[in-house]
Amino acid sequence: MRTTRRVLASLLAVMSLAGPPSAFAKLLSLEVRCPCTRPSREWLGHATYVRCVKRNALRYLRLEAQLDRMRGGPRRSRAELRAAARARVAEASASRCGYESYRCDLGTRPCPPGETCDARMCDLTAGVCVPTPAACPTDGAPRCTCVSKTDPFGLAYANDCERLRAGAVLDVFRNPPFQTCEPSCGGPDQLACAPPRTCVYPWGACSTLTQHGRCVEATKSCPGPVCGCDGTTYATECDADRAGVLVAYGGTCGTQCGGPPSFACPPGLECLKEWGTCEQPDTWGVCRDVACFPLGEVCGCDGQLYPMPCDAVLAGTQVRGFPVDGECPRP
User: What pTM value is reported for the model?
Assistant: First the structure.
């Protein structure tokens, strides 16, 4: 209990620091503290990478074990942690991390046939070429990948081998020690959850055909009211689930517009979306009375110049932004 209190106090102190998110991340994750890959301008050698892992592995494994205990996991002995640290160093030594000859980029520098670009940060495209696994074991820890337009929750693979076979980018911050990677469900492959877990989709997804949900423990909490993807207001999320309808957003229907269902606003209200989302038709907006404010001329998503933002909305389009030299880009 004393250790748990110390860890909680340390985490609260860290979260109160005024600094970039990466500074906090480096204090929790060995993978962030000693990244296998970096942008080309910051690329470090293999020896530097191994030294970083060797210097920090045991300390980070102790912290991960404490966090795991806080989540109800088993206690790990000092001998187990030292053995795990030695294994982590051996894995780093045998890896291709830091070797310039194995550097790849998801957009500009592909790997040779038979190899996969192993990228491990959602905001980076740099990776390391590794052999594409021909077969994978059935055990191992689930690994969650980066979110995308087709998968707002990302996709969880059975283990890291399966992730590499699929060529998916690892989302460091959706895996331990930051979060528990929960199994995926639904989607075009109709993945099922093991009872008593249930499949939960992100609000606003409004599709079971292309998007995966996440298997979570069943909860008694049922927030409401909610607007279903069928345009009907339900008293609670549970009521929508019992009707076989996904949740579009919280609150009564008629307050938001657009999104994947292309909801329209009630008569007398207009759909207002964030400026500059012309190329994102599934963006959600809010239904409001249109007030005209003299902000100056603006460009509509239709490429036309309008005297004020309200004029663009009343014409049935949205605002792209302010004109450049009095001209609007063509859609």
Answer: 0.68
